[in-house]
Automatic annotation (TrEMBL):
The keyword Secreted does not apply. It comes from Symbiodinium necroappetens. Residues 1-102, 207-315 form the CMP/dCMP-type deaminase domain. The gene is guaD. PROSITE patterns: CYT_DCMP_DEAMINASES_1 (PS00903), CYT_DCMP_DEAMINASES_2 (PS51747). GO terms for biological process: purine nucleoside catabolic process. This is GuaD protein. PANTHER family: CMP_DCMP-TYPE DEAMINASE DOMAIN-CONTAINING PROTEIN, CYTOSINE DEAMINASE FAMILY MEMBER.
Length: 315
């Protein structure tokens, strides 16, 4: 019913979701991308955010999700972060694709084993960077490029600072910490394959890249000091358009009581509000670490063209 209401109100696509605990509906939401001008406002993201706020916790492990359609990768990431116990789905993504809602490009991105992003969007859709083509010619277009190693050494030291990163201190400096650290090294035993920005990739020089990365680190440090994240994790993100910072954010999962409040998602939400559009094409993002599954999905939906990262997930 929520999905139907969303369609009648012209809030977004025909998708609805509900979070239930012990037979009681905690939240019920529909897609509101068009209404709020926010590419993150999928039904599942909205329902999870509302449930977290209603229960006063980012942990929904005692809850279940009911959704009209198989979640996109962004929403699956939100399901994982919120620790939902079960998800009940109406139709799968292949059925949705038959009726014009094809998220294949996102699943292809997640399935990629290359370790870097740089996929192509294909299909009979208008190229939003050019005039609309009424003939609907097939479009091949970069969705997002991700580059690594901006101030890599500085960002690594930032993450290793246990006065800032309490997750590092809890996992590796307490009882049994050495064994845990050894296990992590076995899991992440291969050298991270960095993809630095190529010369001529855009009009931004390395000095500017480093300036924006320092800003992302400063935002993360402020959030960590204020205790906004779950364990003061040092994640920060900055969005820039035409050389102007339009949004900055840190991880606020703890302070917002919201499992979806990662630095990247918060920055995207802030940028769309400031610019008055859910389409952030032409913007670039600087983030202290590679985005997680949910945040990457949000980046793809927002059409951000490039991401510059300090470290990979396995630095």
């Amino acid at each position: 019913m929520s999905a139907l209401a969303g369609i009648r109100l012209q809030h977004g696509g025909p998708f609805g979701a509900a979070v239930v605990r012990d037979g009681v509906i905690i939240s019920c939401a529909h897609n509101m991308v068009l209404h709020r001008g926010d590419p993150c406002c999928h039904a599942e993201m909205n329902a999870i955010q509302q449930a977290c706020q209603a229960l006063g916790s980012h942990d929904l492990s005692e809850c279940e999700l009911f959704t009209t359609c198989e979640p996109c990768p962004m929403c699956w990431g939100a399901v994982q972060w919120s620790r939902l116990g079960r998800a009940y789905i109406g139709v799968d993504r292949h059925t949705a694709a038959k009726y014009g809602f094809d998220d294949k490009v996102f699943y292809d991105e997640i399935d990629s084993k290359a370790g870097h992003y740089g996929i192509k969007r294909t299909g009979y859709i208008p190229n939003t960077s050019e005039a609309h083509n009424p003939q609907g010619e097939r479009v091949f277009k970069n969705m997002v490029d991700v580059y690594d190693g901006i101030l890599k050494e500085d960002v690594e030291q930032f993450f290793k600072d246990t006065t800032v990163n309490r997750t590092m201190r809890r996992r590796f400096t307490g009882k049994g910490g050495e064994q845990v650290q050894s296990a992590y090294k076995l899991v992440f035993d291969r050298e991270a394959q960095l993809r630095p920005p190529p010369s001529g990739a855009d009009d931004t020089n390395m000095e500017d890249h480093e300036k924006y990365m320092k800003l992302a680190m400063a935002v993360a440090a402020r959030g960590s000091k204020a205790g906004l994240a779950k364990e003061r994790e040092c994640f920060g993100a900055v969005i820039v358009k035409d050389g102007v910072v339009v949004a900055e954010a840190c991880n606020c999962v703890l302070s917002d009581r919201d499992a979806t409040a990662t630095a990247e998602v918060k920055a995207i939400r802030a940028a769309t509000q400031r610019l008055g559009t859910y389409n952030l094409e032409g913007c670039v993002m600087y983030t202290t670490a590679h985005p997680d599954l949910m945040s990457l999905g949000a980046v793809l939906w927002s059409r951000i063209s490039r991401i510059y990262c300090g470290v990979t997930q396995q630095f």
